[in-house]
Amino acid sequence: MNKRLSVLALALTAALTVAACATTAAPAPQASAPAQESASAETAPAIKDGGEFVYGLATEVNNFDPFKATTADAKSIYFNIYEGLVKVTPEGTFEPAVAESYEISEDAKTFTFTLRDGVKFHNGSTVTTKDVLYSIQLAIDNALNGFGNIESIEAPDDKTVVVTLKEGNIDFLSAASTAIVPEGSDDNGEHALAPIGTGPFKFGEYAVQDYVTLERFDDYWGEPAHLDSVKVKFIASSSDYQISYQSGAIDGFTANAGITEQIDKNTAKIFVANSNAVQLLALNNDFEPFSDENVRKALCYAVDSTEIIDTVNYGYGVKLGSGLIPGLTAFYDETLADTYDVDIEKAKSLLAEAGYADGFTFTVRVPSVYQVHVDTAQVIVNQLAKIGVTMNIEQVDWATWLEKVYSNRDYEATIISLDGSIASPTAFLARYVSDAHNNFVNFKSDAYDEAYKAAVASIDEQERIAKFKECQKVLADEAASVYIQDISNILVYNNHFDGYVGYPLYAVDFSVIYKVD
Questions:
Q1: How many alpha carbons lie under 13 Å from residue 155 in its C-beta half-sphere?
Q2: 296-353 confidence digits (pLDDT tens)
Q3: Which of 25, 175, 228, 329 could make an SS bond with 20 (beta carbons 3.0 to 4.6 A apart)?
Q4: Which has the closest alpha carbon to 502: 17, 22, 89?
Q5: 50 with 227: CB under 8 angstroms?
Q6: What contacts 118, CB < 8 A, 6 or more positions away?
Q7: With left for phi above 0 and alpha for psi between -120 and 50, is residue 370 left, alpha or beta?
Q8: Which residues contact 79 (CB under 8 A, 6 or more apart)?
């Protein structure tokens, strides 16, 4: 028997409330965090439709295929191009998108979606059930999170798509936010082909190592974008952000805290929110000596997250103790942040117990395009020196990092922020399952695998929450890596623009940004 679930009454509503959900949103409280600055609603100027917004981005987006792109920056851009059957709201709930409604069976095994009439792709064609079935199959073939549990997909008529799962999982609704693309576009967005979605912006043009443009899609089924177009400029050096902004070459960018301190507040709007990504010193558990749990714990006790937040991010960040973001409030276990309060003597004792009383040397491979990770590495070098461990920093370009570290797992340690492609604990925690294709830290734990399996199999909300918290505790107790912080997302906009809205994703919603008089 099916029951219709109201969008606003969905069980995930309480579970996915996010800290950053509006222009005045701020990260979870941090004792040393500076006060946030943003425009007052009372003094907000009138919306002026039209115009172009030029946005600076750290890494080049050279793959717009939503089923194959791996970088957070790529996902943040195609958030504006693609939509799924449902889409996430700023509050962390889900609402219909390509589908006008949906039903979930009592056992959470059957999801029935009714398509919205007249939804257009950017190429002018109308979305059909064939497109939806094709897109879901692409997600299955590319092993996207949440799609390995699908037993069958079918379209009983030209308005309905039924997804049947092998095991009940209420969380599949978040997976249903994955892009719907036209049938036959298996290389959508690859090899310089124009990506085609249903979102408020369509692909304009792409200049290698320079920019990509997005144009307002006038046939968009929902609330149209305010801007005529968006140009995303690729600016690899963080120091060039400020220069580009002050010269007027860009209208906005995601800044590190150091640059923010130098911005003229009279000419800019500054929005602060959680980045919804987990920064960590990722340790390759297959590399000696990180295969020894005591060694990993020793590094956890030696790394001072608070010092990193204060010195690198000027207090803009939320200390973490495990692999989930604070924005997923119902699932997040805030008590784990203090699991490894700094204890140098404890760290030395653990190293001695593991046979490394005199310390050891290793190399951390850091993507040079992210200055915040480079700066974090420099702080950690000094912290680890206190326990006799020498960490050498090797800066690599982004392409090299993706190939050697993420894909080939050819590294000893790295510093990176891990985002989630969907607003769900599975997007952050699935990667630690022993045989997960994206488990690039090579973490293996029977206790974790059992807790995760139980979490995704349960359709009882409280049991799911408890099991996902158990997963986080295993990551902390077994020191899968050194968890540092959810770095605050600091967006700087020229004061001729307004409208920023945060989501429980690493994404920039250009459709809500507008020019002001």
A1: 16
A2: 999 999 999 999 999 998 888 999 999 999 988 889 999 999 999 999 999 999 999 9
A3: 25
A4: 22
A5: yes
A6: 126, 221
A7: beta
A8: 199, 505, 507, 508, 509
- Please state, in angstroms and rounded to a whole number, the distance separating the CA atoms of residues 193 and 203: 10
Residue 30 confidence (pLDDT) above 60: no
Q: Alpha-carbon distance 114 to 123, whole Å?
A: 22
Which of helix, strand or coil describes residue 447? helix
pLDDT value of position 39: 39
Domain map (residue ranges) of the chain:
277-488
Class of domain 277-488: alpha beta
- Cβ pair 208, 62 in contact under 8 A: yes
Query: Which residues, 6+ apart, have CB-to-CB distance to 67 below 8 Å?
Result: 138, 139, 141, 142, 144, 178, 179, 188
- Region of 19 (left: φ > 0; alpha: ψ -120 to 50; beta: rest) is alpha
CB 145 within 8 A of CB 173: no
How far is residue 435's CA from residue 514's CA, in Å, rounded to a whole number? 45
Report which residue type is found at 342: V
Q: Are 216 and 49 in contact (CB under 8 A)?
A: no
The whole-number pLDDT of residue 35 equals 35
| Count of CA atoms in the C-beta half-sphere (13 A) of 233 | 19
End-to-end CA distance of the chain: 54
- Express each pLDDT in 166-192 by its tens digit: 988 888 998 999 999 999 886 655 544
* Residue reference for tokens 């623009």: 497
Type of residue found at 381: V
Read off the tokens for 497: 């623009």
SS3 content of the chain, % helix, strand, coil (to 5): 30, 25, 50
Pairing of strands 201-207, 211-216: antiparallel
Give 284's contacts (C-beta < 8 A, 6+ positions apart).
290, 409, 411, 412, 413, 441, 442
Q: What is the pLDDT of residues 47-87, one digit of tens each?
A: 889 999 999 987 787 678 888 876 777 778 889 999 999 99
pTM of the model: 0.71
Q: What is the pLDDT of residues 278-294, one digit of tens each?
A: 999 999 999 999 999 99
